[in-house]
Amino acid sequence: MTSPTSAPDPAGHPAALLELGSRRFGACHPAVAVPLVGTTAEELLQEAARLRGQPVDLVEWRLDHLASGAGATRGDAPRIAPLVAQLVDALGGLPLLATYRTRGQGGRGEADPGEYLTLVEQVAGLPGVHLVDVEFDHPERDAALQAVRTAGARSLVSHHDWDGQPAPEGLSTLVGEMRATGADAVKLATTPADEARALELLTVLTRIAPEGGPVAMLGMGPAGRLTRLVGPACGSFLTFARLGAASAPGQLDLALVAATVDALRAPERA
Q1: 127-138 burial code (b ≥16 CB/10 A, e <16)
Q2: Contact residues for 255 (Cβ-Cβ < 8 A; gap 6+)
Q3: CB under 8 Å to 209, separation ≥6 — which residues?
Q4: Is the pLDDT confidence value at 207 over 50?
Q5: Residue 6's pLDDT is what?
Q6: Contact criterion met (CB below 8 Å) for 201 and 237
Q7: Any idea which residues carry the catalytic annotation?
Q8: CB-based contacts of 41: which residues, under 8 Å, 6+ apart?
Q9: Are strands 14-20 and 5-8 parallel, antiparallel or unpaired?
Q10: pLDDT band for position 3 (50/70/90)?
Q11: What mean pLDDT is predicted for residues 245-266?
Q12: Could you tell me where the DSSP H helices lie in 41-112?
C-alpha cells in the first residue's frame, strides 16, 4: 500500500488521505462504516451479505464478538484465516477494518497483552485486511503499531472514554498525543453529557482536523448521536452506523447516517 497522500480541503488546507485498497478517505472524503458483530462464522457472513448494495464505505469487523470456539478471542488468528477469505469475498471489495476491542475499552476481548499483540500481528498480515485498530492505552500499543506497519496494513489508533469527555483543551491534547504515535489515522470516542458538550467536540474537530493525519471524533450515547451525523461535515474522516446490531451506544441507522453525510457534503467534497 502507498502512504496517505494530500489534497486540498474546502478551506484550502492540505488534508491527508488514508488509502485503503482502491478507496481514499479523509476530511474531504468521509467514510460511513458499519460494524460486523456476529458471534459465529455463519452470523458474520450473513451480516456481510446484507451490506451488498448498501451505502457503506468501510466495514469494521469486531473480532472480539466472535465466540471462543471461532478462534479469535485468544490470539488464534491462523484459525480464522479461511473465514477472513470468505468475508472479503462476501464484502465485494469494501475495505475491511479489523478491530479487537478489549474489555477495558468497552469490548468483549479478554486476550492478555501478549495474545493481543500476536492477534494484531497475525490479522494485519491476512489478505483483505486493510486497516487494523490499535488501542491507544494498550501496553503493547507501540509494538502493535509496528507490527501493522511491517505487515503492510494501515493502523487506526483508538481511544474510548466511557466516563465522559475532556474539556476542549484536553481533547486537542489527546488527539495530538494519539497522532504522535505515528498511526495512519486516529479515532477518539467520548461520552458527552449533553448536546452542548457534543457541540464542543465538533468545534474542536473542526479546528484540528486539517492540522495532521485523518482523525475521527465522535460521541457515544444519546447526546453523541449528533456527532455521528454532523462529524463528517466538520472534518471527521469516519463515522459509524448500524445495519442491525450496534457495536456502541448511539449508533444510528445506516440509511439515515449515509443520507445525512451526503446531504451535508460541501460541493467541493462531491
Answers
A1: ebbbbbbbbbeb
A2: 55
A3: 15, 27, 215, 234, 235, 236, 237
A4: yes
A5: 38
A6: no
A7: 160, 187
A8: 70, 83, 86
A9: antiparallel
A10: very low
A11: 84
A12: 41-50, 81-91
Residue 208 to residue 221: CA distance in whole angstroms: 23
**pTM score, two decimals?**
0.89
**For the chain, counts of helices (H) and of strands (E):** 8, 12
3-class DSSP string for 136-159? CCCCCHHHHHHHHHHHCCEEEEEE
Neighbouring CB atoms inside 10 A of 266's CB total 11
Cβ atoms 72, 64 nearer than 8 A:
yes
Dump pLDDT digits (tens) for 54-101.
Answer: 999 999 999 999 865 455 555 566 678 899 999 999 999 999 999 999
Q: Report residue 39 as a C-alpha cell.
A: 458471534
Q: Which of 157, 214, 212 is nearest to 189 (CA)?
A: 157
All cell numbers assigned to 65: 464478538
pLDDT per residue as tens digits for the range 100-117: 999 999 999 999 999 999
